[in-house]
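3.2 Worked example (two chains)
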Amino acid sequence: MKRKLLSLVLSAALVLSVAACGNDDTPVDNSASTPQSSEPQPSEQEKSSEAVSSEESSEASGGVATGEPTVIRFGTHWVPELDPYNTDDVTGEYTMGERERQAALAGLAAIKEAYNVEFEFLQYPVDVSSDLMTSVLAQDPICDLALMWGGVEPTILAQNVLQDLSPYTSLFEGDEASWLLKGSVFDGYYLLGYEFGETSFPLIVNMTMLEAVDSLKDENGKTIYPTDLFKEGKWTWSTFKDYLGKIKAYYSNVAAPDGAYYDYVQAYETDFRYAALGAVHANGGAIYDGGVTADSEETIEAVAYIQDLVDQELLTPCHLQDDFTPEWLRGGNDFGKGATVFTDCGGWMIGGHSTECAARGESIGIIPWPMPDDATVDSETYRQSTNGGNSVGVLKGVSPEKTELALKAFILYWQTYHKTIAGVDTIAEYHEAAALDKLAGYGVDLYNETYGDDLIECYTYIMSHMSTNYANMMGLWEDYNTHDQWTEILGQSLFKAPGMSSYDVAIKANLTNLTNKTDSIAAVLKTEGVHDNQKPNITKEKAILAAGSADVDWTQYFSAEDAVDGVIEITADSITVNEGLDLNTPGKYEKAVTAKAADKSGNEASSDLTVIVYDADNTEAPTAAAKEELPTVALNTETSGINWSDFLESAQDADGVDVKDNVTADLSTLDTTTPGEYDVTLTVTDYAGNTAEITVKVSVVSE
């Protein structure tokens, strides 16, 4: 049955990545999407698809509404991946992949038939953090359903602009809908999800490298794979530790390939933070679970297990950039080289690393993080961690009636979307289809006669036993500035940083570093008003001054504006000049001047200005050198979009001041519509007006 389903799924070429762009909050196009009625009209095939009836949807809704449809505004930071009618401004082609687009159209048809609802997808004009807040403050919410990129949730929650959806939780009862409601935070339900997650950094293994270890074979000489142990209910912490010990004993004298960080092949090289996260969730623990639980017995026990693996040198941390911060992608990179047997790897990297392994004739597997010795695969507490993806909330100011309708439409839309993508009838059936698709995309050897089916079973289990790492959503995961968040506390305790005790002691001593952040959000949510937590935006002009300049008015180089308060004056009192700035000596002075601006809510922003000082009396031409390896230009590139400074290794005036940005090109000899090599003359101009020319070869190539 699995083989048949696999063939069906792979032939359908499922693509599960849907709306939004992860943690990237910068829209590709800042223009908002127009309502569907003004978008290109659907094709006859699409009209036919939208007209298909949905008896199941109608029955669930209690009948189809009539009259003018209700428009639910669905806000996002990137419309092209959410709106099936959105087209590229240049090509005119739809921006969604065709399979996702057809699934989205099916979802739109379902909510139209069931509830007489239409989604209007609109893009935030500036930024989700400011646009939601200012619109609710103005008592004119910008949208009804607000999509938030993963990681911005604590900022939005601290604004108190989202409705607590607790009165509507009954809409999410049952397996078909419960996955769409994220867990309780701050005693309320504020966040929805729509993506089927995957583990944050799943545990992956080189299955072929295991086969070289004789101590991992049974009495018949057959390798005992992790998949075998998982199926038998024996994939436990103690088994994993013993397993790693056997691998270490074999590979400790095997030299690692060139380019690996460590000299010898490692049993389990990984970013310890994700290993600890896997162990914590496998043990039924969490860093945040409605409140900070980083000091819970389950979490402490899981970290102690990781500490034991580190102390026994069975878990080799990725190269540490400082005393406790790992080079987080190193384990995956070394895995791809064949320098470690196990690692926890970012999902977006697995496909590339599996390709590296396949080039050597090796196969990889993705397996559940092992369970505690006293657990079973059926234990409610045995879960796999996921960061939860993007979130959706309902803004304050949306009426109760419209909120309920929006939630019903949201549920039906995403149920229909995912079931259409997978070609199944229920969400429960979706998990196996999704597992197959994901594994195929990762390059896992699903057709392996020995363990192919077992790998499918393992990943199906992973996808249906997720536990969200709300610490990531609550801003408790890491803070590179203060080093007082969970991963920093974990790392300092594991590696015994000065003044830091073992984790069980350290977490209790440093717990307030975590609870202060969540307590501040909780306090805001108990109030009635919107809380402005957005800093003013400071913009700056270039500061290019002739040597000997005096009495400079630095305020003219800065301007500030706040989303709520509008323009904020930059005064001389808010300016600080660095003592290292010498206006008499030519040079480039980084962070020479700092301006600060505060809004009426006390949010303060600062911005540093780079000052360039040049000799106005200089008459010597600048010098310029081309890069040894020049970049290429893609066929049909608009010449106005070429950054010619990228072709220069250096460009300096007579005093050594960098003028690489002051370059222009003679385009009379360049034809980007025809492949070939062209001599292009670049002119570099220094700040005193002196020029120099250099000729570079520009290669126009077909992509």
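3.2.1 Second chain
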Amino acid sequence: MTDDASRQQAAAILAMMQTGQKMASDFFEALTRQQVAMQDATGVVAPTLPLPEPDAMARLQQEFAASHMALWSSMLARKPGESAEPVVTPEAGDRRFSSPEWTANPMFDYLRQAYLINAGFLSQAADSVPLNDGRAKARLQFLTRQYIDAMAPSNFAATNPEFISTALDTKGESITRGIQNLLADLEKGRVSMTDESVFEVGRNLAITPGAVVYENDLIQLLQYSPLTETVAQTPLLIVPPCINKYYILDLQRENSFVRYIVEQGHTVFLVSWKNAGPAESGKTWDDYVQEGPLTALDVVRDITKVKKPNVLGFCVGGTLLATALAVARARGENPVASVTFLTTLLDFSDTGEIGCLVDEASVSAREAAIGKGGLLRGQELASVFSFLRANDLVWQYVVGNYLKGGTPKAFDLLFWNSDATNLPGPFLAWYLRNMYLENNLRLPGRLTVLGQKVDLGKIDVPVYFFAAREDHIVPWKTSYLGRALVGGDTTFVLGASGHIAGTINPVAKNRRSYWTSAQPLTSPDEWLAGAEEHPGSWWAHWTEWLKAFGGRQVAARGRLGSARYEPAEPAPGSYVKVRA
């Protein structure tokens, strides 16, 4: 190599390092500005964001420069019409650049790989920030990923070859359709994830037959019609989360968890939460506990004349149910025969990615804005959950709907995901502070609900915990910690996949797998090391467990409700149909 060439290469590497330095500097300055803005809005002083150690930053800049030089050299050496071995490749499961247009054209291939190098550099820079606060570190990593995902060349018309090829193939019609899709979504206030015209609650979703047998300001209580000649004498009450519509448990006939339970010979009741409006804007956690699980239990006992029903809580519904049972026990009552918690947190010590968004500043802001009254709009909450998986639940549809002018496929789960619910401000603020921020539920006597000291250890009946191994909303190892908090014998089962796909796993499809172990209480890792994997759905395992608490077989009742609680309207009722 000549002296001139060496000097040119050294200058290029220096320029690349300076580019990396400026990129990191600009990024950290943007994060600092966000922290200052949060402080100005809430009055809560946010922790100062330290910069990475100089040596660590210098190493990253050198690697950054070397990667870009290797990419540039690869592009220069590439012969027309030939492909080149990539310098960097997407992570497994990243489908943004899977179309052949990204590699066929050298310019787009360069854009793709340059973005991946830049993304890796920023991600490593965020990881190297010396933060001892785990929540603050997780928040930094989350914000970094949001920035990286948003800036992908696939998200912009000028840098996405699929946009260009689709526009050419359709003679520009895809651009027109994309603009129409964008305008329609702007009117709806959200990105369309499915063809919503295909589904309707009560027509082809939430169609398990039953009736509303009770209603108050917060719930409608559904009782489902028997599908077997005999049923277990002890009924089952299901408490779903109030942050989503209940029909995730009753989608279509072939994937309805509710229908499956009824088909196994159980009398099933289910709480359908009201989509909060102005009239409910002052409702508190106490209100939800009293008007939800506790009232539903009273009605179920009155209708069936069974003193101790079985109960099941899903996600936040499980947290509410646990609180309600602890209140009942503090009152001297012994209200249930068994408890099932599906993907539920009782200990909030590690709440995953959601937890990184909850800090003193953000909670104080919520308390100031809506803590005394007001609503958290459902769409805001839905957006938070979507951005936890932004490439799958946001940018994929931005590209498909707007850049390529497509219509997303009909998918019942994504229709449900878009059917957001509002939450009362006082309920939300209390929940965020006492669960996510201060983790008070796990401490006996720390919380007072409905005038009673809450102690989960007084829940001294058999408890079945189900968690999902890839759950990013309720991390399974944290869900496992709930075993140590309750007072009864516990069974823990771990399912494959995530928060929803792991839970809604019909037996008939025989997909995925689950893990069981008879080990006594131990650490989550030790439990998994000794667990046995089983193919198929955990549903069958759970219904077998539930048999022990179902009592004797009795003839199925010919009518729903009772003289006191007459059926008011067919399932799914009216509350679930109210759109946010």
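3.3 Remarks
The chain has a mean pLDDT of 90.
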